[in-house]
Amino acid sequence: MQQSGLTEGESRVYLALLELGPSTSGPIVEKSGVSRSIIYQLLDRLSQKGLVSHIVKERTKYFQAAAPDRIKEYLEEEEEKFRENRQKVEELLPKLYSMQASAAESEAKVYIGFKGMITAHEHTYQKLSRGDEYYYMGIPAHQEEHQHAYWLRDHARRAKAGIRTRILFHPSTDISILKSRNRHALCDARYMPNSINTPAWFMGYKDVALIGLQSKVPITIEIVNQEIADSFYAYFEDFWKRTKPVR
Q1: Cα–Cα dist 112/109, whole Å
Q2: Cα→Cα distances 163→55, 74, 104, 146, 220, Å
Q3: Directed axis angle between helix 145-161 and helix 113-122, to 10°?
Q4: Average pLDDT of 11-26?
Q5: Among 22-26, 53-57, 86-90, 179-183, which is the least confidently predicted range?
Q6: 164-169 vs 133-139, strand pairing mode
Q7: Which of 53, 63, 139, 238 could be stapled to 169 by a disulfide with Cβ–Cβ 3.0 to 4.6 Å?
């Protein structure tokens, strides 16, 4: 099942539902073996992928797995999204290379996959010192479990290094995720002031600006240019002024 692009937890829940038929969350937890604390998060992600639906009977929610053929349709949709994102990057690259050519101090790099995104993020530790800050905005509501695990480890490392961060998540993000980030020192995670749905997120610090395209195969563009970094930061500050702390 994981070859179909589902996480291990999503695969377990989907297979359990295929065997159970329409079911409440309790039997799904027992059958799949996933943690009760994340069952609704997994069901919601499967629902977004069109692999699970639900109905309400007498105020009780019953979930049901979509037909297995839906997995093929889901993969085709993901492949189409990847092709679209690839096209966007190809259209953007000439502009980035143009900027690189026009200023010797400018640099643009493209990273593919989650490991590539980590590589770009790791550069923060090369440029930032204790008391410095980086920001993220437009973080998508849904991320894979291994991505959340990485960020939790990294926030502990960031806090120990004394680096501050401000983060803006999509408004539909589960509040538990923001609270988990805010438990780490020098972190202020909030919701975006609007619900713009876009696969792109943005990050910046010093003279660096990052553009990330969230998809099955993430794409991260790293631009080293002070003018561009300042422009991104101005947009971030405008959004930030319209947000409220998460309690």
Answers
A1: 10
A2: 46, 40, 29, 23, 22
A3: 10
A4: 88
A5: 86-90
A6: parallel
A7: 139
Q: What are the backbone angles phi and psi of residue 209, rounded to the nearest 5°? A: -130, 135
Token pair listed for 185: 């020192």
Report the distance separating Cα 92 and Cα 219, nearest Å: 12
Record the tokens describing residue 16, joined without a space. 């359990």
Question: Using N-to-C axis directions, what is the helix angle for 8-20 and 39-48, rounded to 10°?
Answer: 80
Q: Which domains does the chain have, with CATH numbers?
A: 2-66 (1.10.10.10), 91-240 (3.30.870.10)
Task: Give the Cα separation of 15 and 121 in Å (integer).
Answer: 35
Residues 78-130 have pLDDT tens digits of: 778 778 888 888 888 887 776 655 554 568 999 999 999 999 999 999 999 99
